Amino acid sequence: MSSHKQERKHKRSKHEPISNDDYFVKSAEFRMWLKEEKDRYFNDLDAEKARHYFKKFVKAWNRDELEEKYYKGINSAQLSSSDNTGYKWSFAKKLDQHELDSVRDSVDTMTGGGRQQQRGGRRAQAVGPSRPPTTGYDQVEEEEREERERAERRAQRKAESKRKRDRREEYLDEVAPKETGREAQMAKKRALNAYHKRERSPDVELDESDLYGGGDDFKAA
């Protein structure tokens, strides 16, 4: 009888129900819910408290009490560091700008960006009626511009790949260390599987060694 009641209850729900076993799969949604609904930070909680609040999150989820954004799914990239901890790094924005500047400097080094910058003023003045195609100096200049754009795209993809690897490591540090011993290894594997399922982007390809580490990583653990 109780199973029939439970089945009817799930049919009334607009969304797929979850359980306490979805602790890792729904980690991103849980962290945002903690910050926005409970004014608490995931990294400030010990394992017992985190599980306690996750049970409340599961109940709210299954009762359709959450905002629609939680059911649509939240990528960990949507979470800022302030959603995980109350400590704010004053240099965070400066670090992002420094990373962007480093990418641009690398592109300049590969493509002779200094010369391109000097010639940019002359190109900017070429506004008005179209001119017939030219060769020689202008052709070389155009080829350098195209090469610069390609190099910048490559550098941006490389930086994005690094950010994704860093986010993966932060994700594992946030969820897996909550457990100990053999359970910690199993938790880390589950976290990796959940991350791999949620975070893969078609724009940045990550091979297995990037996602899981070397083949002997878990054996050595």
Automatic annotation (TrEMBL):
Q: Which domain of life is it from?
A: Eukaryota
Entries under InterPro entries matching the protein: SCI-1-like
Q: Where is the composition biased (Basic residues)?
A: 187-199
According to the record, the residues making up region (Disordered) are 100-221
Compositional bias per record (Basic and acidic residues), positions renumbered to this chain? 147-159, 167-186
**Low complexity compositional bias, start-end:** 116-126
What PANTHER family does UniProt report for this protein, alphabetically? STYLE CELL-CYCLE INHIBITOR 1
Q: What is this protein called?
A: Uncharacterized protein
List the source organism: Lichtheimia corymbifera JMRC:FSU:9682
